[in-house]
Specification:
Oligomer: heterodimer
Shape of chain A: globular
CATH class of the largest domain in chain A: Alpha Beta
Strand content of chain A: 15-25%
Number of helices of chain A: 16
Distance between the termini of chain B: 69 Å
Mean pLDDT of chain B: 87
Number of domains of chain B: 1
CATH architecture of the largest domain in chain A: 3-Layer(aba) Sandwich
Largest sheet of chain A: 7 strands, mixed
Radius of gyration of chain A: 24 Å
Distance between the termini of chain A: 42 Å
Strand content of chain B: under 5%
Largest interface: A-B, 25 and 22 residues
Structural class of chain B: mainly alpha
CATH topology of the largest domain in chain A: Rossmann fold
Chain lengths: ~500, ~300
């Protein structure tokens, strides 16, 4: 049997870095093939070559036995290769049907297209209204638009670049259902991910990349996740370690905090009360959009509240702004790395200054001490293994995982009394995520209080001492995380809206 | 003295045509995600090239073509600077206006007061003499009808055709459009040239048809009004037409109010288009979601093709 896609010795080098070296693998029709690797392992470059966005330096590709060298995505699409991007290539101000039409070679008339969209979404269980504006859709719905756009082309090979990184567990289930159905119909799927359990659940074969080279091919169902992780990282991953301890004094206490939503799409916080003690990690779980951003804004000082609603070491801080709170030892690392946690076009040194100014004493009399700031940035880079040529690099140029390590490291190195992080490992590869979790635990071990807001329930159960669930702006009573099963967590999230399948 | 509504309407249509042409061109440019602040410069280039050609050849048609060509040449400078050399659009656009004003003044030396041919009107005398309706609907130069047809054409292309969809997509999110395989730079250069041609035509109309003379700096801010008009219209073609007539009406009314010796400060009326634009801007941006849907999200952002 000829393979659907046969890749032989593909090599691509960029100035200073070899993205792919001599990569070969095959994808059979109807196969779900995983491309597994850490951030920067060369997965994205590889699929961009297959999709015609990047030209390989060397190597050959064959599609159905015929030589295949797409000059541009259009050529790839014409030959039945479709791709769903990690960062969706969608247009917010256009509606679903228009977005889909843009991705097609010969789109039918608007009305026919709408009918076809309805038909495909019915067949594959992807509910979608063709006339809704893209800007109103959730991440999961946007991904459906991308997938339907691909499916309308009748692809032989569907490439999916980290499709689950923005989805809720329920949306992941829907997606997997669709992908299995597609595979059963003979469509090959090239599935890029670094989430091992997903790959074990979905994929038939996995090609593992490390530093641009293929290191192994395996059948995910037959090997353990730990084994794949080792192949991927090149060393065994350590589960975050921590010693038993008794929590100390209450560092941060929030009581009866209610904040009305600032925007029509925001969440109103209702009667939040909790406290965190020294040496403790408090996990706040919940599906996105239930008030996570608002909680962070309230704790960081971006949204001022009643002075007494938030007490830091017994002192009211509710009315203080972010800088005053930083001065007192309450630090935050928001979820959105580019634009919220870091200024994208500023260098790492400048970004280090932005929050480290006060606690690190990076300025004297209004003048910036650049030497000291650079030293601080270099310290973050060295201690948190941020992979970058140096502190002069713009934040935008770093991969998501590396920037996340920098952002978290920047706060941890400022020796906070209380640290609040939102989605600390979102879009971060396995080894970097493990490093970040370990750093958070070490911080707690050192006597700080840590609040972790996350949608990754496994992560929360792994590192939290106590766990509580955020649901529609309300916080459940915290429970000890140890011994808490997924079922209990589900009940705590219970009734969380948006947990069921979206309906048209 | 009483102001005659019929002559006022006739005047406002004539006054608004150059601004309308420039604005509908700039609307297309901005829909493609490019902010070209050089409209004033392109208009005045159109005015001077059109006038010179009309004087030498005696052909209005050639004059309009020359006006467009002159402005397109200037627009191409902007296109090369911003799309190929990736210069900042705001700075390049401002430079384009200054450069256009200076170059037009240089080219126009000695042409002031020279005669140009009269423009034929497309409709027969009989139609034009219908009381009321005749002057308003049938008395104009061909370019007035062309400009209104152009608004309709732009509306149809933007909302009903694939080219329009691709253009909007490029203006909305150039990275996504690039990833889908659309030629962002090429589409934007084409849009900039279209914008230049429209502005040039508007300028030529001003010098050859309306004023029938060349005066240095004769556009007198019409390009800026066109830019304001696009925002005022929240990037919708028909609203551009409406806005052009509104702004034209204010200008036409102002002259008549002065002639009628009614005590309204001229400066206030002159400033009113800008005031209205600011008010509209405040209104549309107070509804954040609406504003986001109207304005091209990629407006003024430099596109670096990577990957």
């Amino acid at each position: 049997m000829t393979a659907l896609l046969d890749i032989e010795g593909l090599t691509k080098a960029y100035p200073g870095v070899v993205a792919n070296q001599d990569v070969s693998f095959r994808v059979q029709p109807g196969e779900v093939h995983a491309l597994l690797g850490e951030n920067g392992a060369g997965k994205s470059t590889l699929v961009k070559m297959i999709y015609g966005l990047v030209k390989p330096d060397r190597g050959t590709m064959r599609l159905n036995g015929a030589p295949y060298a797409p000059a541009e995505p259009r050529a790839a699409r014409a030959l039945g290769v479709a791709m769903v991007f990690q960062h969706f290539s969608l247009f917010e101000a256009l509606n679903v049907a228009e977005n889909i039409a843009l991705g097609m070679e010969n789109p039918p008339r608007a009305r026919d297209l709408a009918a076809r969209i309805a038909a495909v979404s019915e067949t594959y269980g992807l509910p979608l209204d063709p006339f809704r504006m893209m800007g109103e859709l959730s991440a999961g719905e946007r991904q459906r638009v991308e997938i339907i756009r691909c499916l309308l082309q009748d692809p032989k090979l569907l490439i999916m670049d980290e499709p689950t990184s923005v989805l809720t567990p329920q949306e992941v289930e829907i997606l997997f259902h669709t992908l299995r159905k597609l595979a059963a119909e003979g469509t090959a799927i090239l599935y890029i991910s670094h989430k091992l359990e997903e790959i074990r659940a979905l994929c038939d074969t996995a090609t593992i990349l490390r530093l641009g080279q293929k290191v192994a091919t395996c059948t995910p169902r037959e090997v353990s996740a730990a084994h794949m992780a080792e192949l991927m990282v090149g060393k065994s991953l350590s589960v975050p370690a921590r010693e038993d301890h008794t929590p100390g004094a209450v560092l941060l206490a929030v009581s009866g905090l209610s904040v009305a939503a600032a925007t029509p799409f925001g969440t109103t916080l209702r009667d939040l009360s909790f406290e965190v003690r020294a040496g403790e990690v408090l996990g706040i779980g919940g599906v996105a959009g239930n008030g996570q951003d608002e909680v962070l804004a309230v704790l960081s000082g971006e949204t001022p509240t009643d002075p007494g609603a938030i007490m830091l070491q017994g002192a009211p801080v509710g009315a203080l702004g972010p800088n005053a709170r930083r001065g007192l030892g309450l630090l935050c690392a928001p979820e959105e790395r580019l634009g919220h946690a870091a200024a994208p076009d500023m260098s790492l040194t400048e970004n280090a200054l932005l929050t480290g100014r006060l606690r690190q004493g990076l300025e004297t009399g209004g003048f910036v001490d650049w030497a000291k700031t650079r030293g601080f940035a270099q310290d973050i880079i060295a201690r948190f293994d941020v992979r970058t040529p140096g502190p002069w690099v713009a934040a935008r140029a770093l991969s998501g995982g590396n920037l996340q390590k920098f952002v978290i490291g920047r706060e941890i190195l400022q020796d906070p009394k209380v640290l609040v992080v939102n989605q600390p490992t979102w879009g971060v590869d396995a080894s970097a995520a493990a490093a970040i979790r370990q750093a958070l635990l070490d911080l707690a071990q050192g006597g700080a209080a840590v609040i972790v807001i996350s949608q990754d329930l496994d992560e929360l159960l792994e590192i939290s001492d106590r766990f509580c669930a955020l649901n529609d702006g309300r916080l459940s009573a915290p429970r000890p995380a140890r011994g808490l099963g997924m079922e209990d967590v589900g009940l705590m999230l219970g009734g969380a809206h948006g947990m069921h399948e979206a309906r048209v | 003295m009483i102001i005659d509504p019929v002559t006022l309407i006739v005047a406002l249509i004539t006054v608004s045509t150059p601004v309308l042409l420039a604005a509908i061109g700039e609307l297309v440019v901005e829909k493609a995600g490019v902010l070209n602040l050089g409209v004033e410069g392109m208009m005045i280039m159109g005015a001077v090239c059109g006038f010179i050609t009309a004087h030498h050849t005696g052909s209005p048609a050639l004059a309009f073509v020359a006006g467009m060509a002159g402005a397109v040449a200037l627009a191409l400078v902007f296109a090369v600077l911003t799309q190929i050399l990736m210069a900042n659009q705001v700075a390049s656009g401002l430079a384009l206006t200054l450069f256009g004003l200076g170059l037009a003044a240089l080219l126009g030396v000695g042409y002031s007061g020279l005669p140009v041919p009269a423009i034929a009107r497309p409709f027969p005398e009989a139609l034009r003499d219908i009381p009321g309706l005749g002057p308003i609907v049938f008395s104009h130069s061909i370019l007035v009808y062309v400009s209104i047809a152009l608004v309709a054409a732009v509306w149809i292309v933007l909302t009903r055709t694939r080219i329009g969809l691709v253009l909007r997509a490029v203006g909305e999110n150039h990275d996504a459009a690039h990833a889908l395989g659309y030629k962002v730079v090429r589409i934007r250069i084409a849009a900039i040239m279209f914008g230049g041609a429209c502005a040039g035509l508007g300028g030529a109309f001003l010098s050859v048809v309306r004023v029938q003379n060349w005066i240095e700096g004769m556009t007198a801010g019409a390009g800026w009004i066109a830019l304001a008009l696009v925002v005022f219209a929240s990037w919708k073609p028909w609203r551009v037409l409406l806005g052009a007539w509104l702004f034209g009406g204010i200008a036409a009314l102002q002259l008549r109010l002065q002639a009628a010796e009614i005590g309204v400060p001229v400066a206030l009326l002159d400033a009113s288009p800008y005031l209205v634009t600011i008010i509209v801007l405040v209104l549309i941006s107070s509804d954040r979601r609406r504003a986001a849907l109207n304005a091209p999200a990629g407006l003024g952002r430099v596109f670096h093709a990577s990957s």
